[in-house]
Every structure is written in structure tokens, then in C-alpha cells.
Write a structure and sequence with these properties.
Number of strands: 41
Low-confidence stretches: 1-6, 14-20, 46-59, 503-518
Number of helices: 6
Distance between the termini: 81 Å
Mean pLDDT: 83
Structural class: alpha+beta
Length: about 725
Amino acid sequence: MGGPTAMLRPEEEKMFEGQPRGFPFGDFDLEDVMLPEGEDMGIPSDTDEDNQEEEISSESGFGNVLVVDNLPQVGPEKYEKLTAILTKILSGSGRIREGGLFHPVDEASKMSKGYAFVEYENVEQARAAQAALNGYQLDKAHKFAACLYDEFERLAKVPDAYEEPGERVFTPGENLLDWLTDKRGRDQFVLRYGDESEVCWNDAAKQQEESVYKRSFWTEAFVEWSPRGSMLATVHRQGVALWGGKSFERLQRVGHPNVQSLLFSPCEKYMLTFSEFPAGPQGRPHFLAIVWEIRTGKRLRTFDGPHEEYAVGAMARPDRGMRWPAFRWSGGGDAPVLLAHMKANAISVYQAPEMTMLDKRSIKMENVQDWEWSPAAPDATLAAYQAEQGNLPARVVIMKLPSREELRQKNLFSVAGITMTWHPQGDYLAVQVDKWTKTKKSTTTNFELFSLREKDCPIDMLELANKSEKIQQFAWEPRGSRFALLHGDGSRPTVSIYNMKDNKSILSIYNMKDNKSSARGVTLLHTMTNKQCTSLHCLNRLHMPTLQGGHNGVVEFWDCEEMTLLSAGEHFMAQEVAWDPTGRYVATIVNAAAAMENGFQIWSFSGQPLYKTAHDRFFQLNWRPRPPSLLSEEKQKEIVKSLRKYSKRYEEEDEALLAQADTEFLAEREKQLSEWRNWLAAKKAAVEEREAFAREQLGNRVSAHEEFVIQQVEVSVVLDVKEEPAQKL
């Protein structure tokens, strides 16, 4: 091929190797490139504030080398012992290369110099080790100072003389609860599809989403709202960034290389970030968990090391790793903020902000296998399961912290497994108990139901008539006393709905013949058999969208006050269901795991489909949570009773919005029509000018239609077909 590319010099050919031929590199000047205003196209800028803490360059070849200072200075008699201790500590966050620990000794005094160089297998391990070891307290007199070798140049530029910083003018940030001031009381959700992340209003009145903020490459993994919705977290290779306010400005960022998971405290004051590293050919899998104070970005505590100590009971994976979340925050309210994790025969609890162990000792529990915090309680309440051991029975215990007072405990026998499910407001605890039969070849199932708001925390037991029937799902009704069971072994299971409070007429569809009840204080309200259902999603009045799964995403909305089917619909290929925080709307989702039909559909609480949006490579839809109401329960009940008084105004507002939407639609259509007419007039004028020029130049030799072939075509369209029986002759 010819052209400008043929004029390239040999060094230019090498420089532009792999580029499409024909580009005029010879006359190309990079300074001539103009990017769109306000868009950097992913190219870092020298003046960009976001790049002040960019990844450390490892061009020196020592990016995987860590320098650890403030080590004890010892003589020859203690040198080997100290080196062995250092090797054990330093290898906790990564594998040290063979001969990769250099612990220098002063030739004159024969004393160690108090620092060491550590070479890890790769840069990521060195960074993780630096995060874990910096500030590590070896003993009372020695606290590690860990620094990457490639940071030396930056640290060398720090002046020796202290320069007092100038006064900084305080600039108030944006209101983090700004979205709650929406006059129409709309909710927001965040979408993640392709390389885009977008925050939108759910505009049900106009039956569409309204974009609030959109950004490309905003996250490298996933996004997550804080529990009260004031912040949005984005995950990156270097760590986690937090965004909020009306313009979603960056509020905070914390450094945790290769972070994989994060967990906010319910009060939004603290955050835990987590990463794990697979085992090498001869090593063990290890992890790094860091607790941060969100407001200051201060690191409060670091947990790191091999998984073995933490991967216990239900927290252990088949690959010897640790299930997430192995660390869990206590519920909200006025209770102290606690973080806990399980280990062999104990549960360790730490209190924020000091992050010191509660009472300086773990809670001893022999053979503990699982535990769960109550999601909402005046005090931090913990439920734990201890498996059978020798002649000791299995045990479920409910404990109040920090007092360690046992509220209730229950002994169980022949236990094969246990699943604990807290009520969203902490009013009840359901314990699903799978028990071995006498032959140990099969299991039966029953439920132990704890009522924590009643005196002495009474326990009800619920058994199904078919004890061996598989329990597929248990779901509590939020802000209520009912729960639903999805049970059965086939593709069409049964849905049963129970109430914990009504003791007047205790019914059991399974034991009605002998007038016996399978639970002391549990009422069976309704049973739906042979349902195409794979999951239950309950909110407010226990409306239950039920998804068939697979191909036909059948969605049913049930009202459990009247036990009636409100409506049924279908969202083809739907895999997920997500209620908004108010219970007014629900989204059904088809994510990128499906090969087609990616996107979401919004429904009203009664099952009316509102709008549907498609996105290629659709990953996430997360509703923005709302903070707890500032109104008392009495005031909220009063407002609910007075809704009819406000309904007329709301209906008028909805009608005005629909009229506005129609007006905007008509105005947009008129605008498009006007643009089309202007374009058509311009084209006609251009054609007339061209024809006039042709006639002027060619005279009678030009024909206005010589460039066109006119054909007359007849087209038949069937508008309707109606069949009627022929009359007999």
C-alpha cells in the first residue's frame, strides 16, 4: 500500500507497529490532538488531583522489596532466634523468595542494625505486607515501620526542617442526604452495565428512569451503597473510594491493594475491607482485613495471616479458605458498635473505635460452628450454635453484649446442621434444625422459633407433617410477625404462610385430622401448593413475588392480609428480585449471567408493570437505602391512618405529572418534526440549485428524471381476518 505510511522511517515503523496502515504518522503531531471538554478519555493529567496517589512505579526493579525498620538490635547469641521470628511474621502476608530476607549486621559491633530488607514473590504481595506490617507492635519497645523500597525517592524529598502549613479555609461539603429532599419522594438506584455506572431516579409517574449521575470506568469490580444510603463505594485495585452529595464528589479513599470485599458498620462510621491471596505451591492461603474510620480515613485495626484460625465451622470453605463475611458488625441502634469473628472454640468481639477486644478476652464456646448478630436490637444481641461433642448435646444460645448475659439457650440432639434466620427488626429468631434419623441415612427438619420481645424469651417448635420434606427457603415479614416457608422436593414446591402472634385459632393443615398443632403459638394462615416458585421476597404486607427461574420468569404478587393473588406477570429469564426501601416498587433483573435479555423491569407493589429497560452486559441494580425515620412509631401510625385525607392531593399531582409528560412528549415530537422539515427544505433547495446549474450548463440536454427509475408497485396488507361459519344452502 502507498500513502503517507510508506514515508515512515525504520524507527517509526517499529514505534507504530501494529497500528492500522494508512494513518499519516509522518505528519502527525501529538500536540494537535484535542479531547472533548470535560472528558479525559482515561488519559491521566499532570494536574489531576486524583493521580496524586497513583500506583507506585516499580521501574527500579525493586517493586517487590519491602524495608522494615524499628527492629530490635541484638547480638550474635540472639540473632538467629530474632531472624526466625521475623521470618514467621513477615511471611504472614506473602511468600518470601528463597534467600529474600536480608537482616544486616554491623561488622564493628556485631549487633544487628535494626532494619531488614524483604523480597516477596511479586509487587502485590509486597504492598499487602506493607499495609499489614506498618505499625505492627512486636513488643512494648518495638513498633514496625514498613516502607516499599520504591518509596525511598519520595521520602528523601521530605525536608529535614519543619515547615508549618498555612491556614486552610474550611469548605463545607455537600449535603449527603440531599436525595431525601426530593419533593415527589422518589427513590434512587445505581446501575452497572458494560463500562458504565449510573445513578437514576425511579420516576414511576412518568414510567421511566431519570439519570442523575453517570460515569465510565467508575469502578473496577462492583459498587455498594452504605447502609443508610449517604455514600456509594467503588472498588479499585488500589483500594476503595467513597462518593456522596448531589454531585457525587469523592468523600474519602482508603488504600487496600486488590481489595475484594467490603462491609460497612450499620452506623456508617466504620468500614472493613478484605482481600485474600491463594496458596502457593508450598504455602497456605492467607488474607488481609483492615478496619477504617470513614470520616478520617484512619486505619483502626488490621487482621491478617493464614485462614486456618478463622476458617472454622460454617466459615470454612472446601478449599480451606474463609467464607465471606467471616467478620460481622453488630446491629444498629444505640448499642455499642462491635465487630466479631469466630475461631476455634471461641468468638472474638472488638469494640469501636478503639478496636480492642471486649473485656480483653474472647467469648469461650466449645465447638462453636456458626453465629449471627441480631440486625436491630437496643443492645447488641448474638445468637450462636455449638455442635454436639461427646456426650454434650448441641446448643443454641442467645447472648446480650457487652454484658455477656445469656437471654435463652436450647439443647438439641442428633443435629446434622442448623440455619439461623433473624427477623429484620430482631423480634424473632428462627432456627432450622436438620436432625439425623436413627439409621443416620436421612434427615428430618423442624423449626425452633424464639420470641425475643416477650418475657423469658419463649420458644415455639414447628414441624411439618412430612418431616423429611426439603426446606428451600425461609423468609420473615419485615415489621410484622409472619413468615413464609418454601418447601418441597420437586420443581413445583409448596408455599406456607404462618403467624407468630395469633394464639386463638391454632391450625395445622398437616395435623387437622387429629386436631393437633405442630407448634404451640404459631398459626398457619395459608398454603399454596404446586407453585412454580424458586424464591420468596417479602416486604411490608408480605407481598411475595415468586420467580420460576430458568426461562419463564413468572412473578406473582400476593396480599397476605386477604390471602389473595393481586396479579401475576412475566419477566423472561429473570434471575433476581429487589424491593425498593419503601416497599412501593420492585425490580426484576436479568444480569450478564444470561446470554440475552439483559436489563431490568420495574413493577408497582401490586404487580403492575411500569417500565422496562435493556442494557447489554448488565451487572447490578442496587436500590439506595434510606436512613431510619425520625418520626416515632405513633406518629407513623397516625400518618398511615390519615392517608385517605392526602390521597386526593397525591392523585392530582400524579395527573399533573402525566399531563406534563404528555406535553413534553408532544413538544419533543413537534421539535423533531420541525427539524425534519427544516432538513427537507434544505435538501430541496440544494437539489433545485443543482438542477438549475445543470440546466444552465447543459441546456435542453439534461432531464430532471434521468437519474431516477420510477416504478409503480402495488402492496397488499391484511388488516384483519374474521372467520364466520358458512350458511347452509
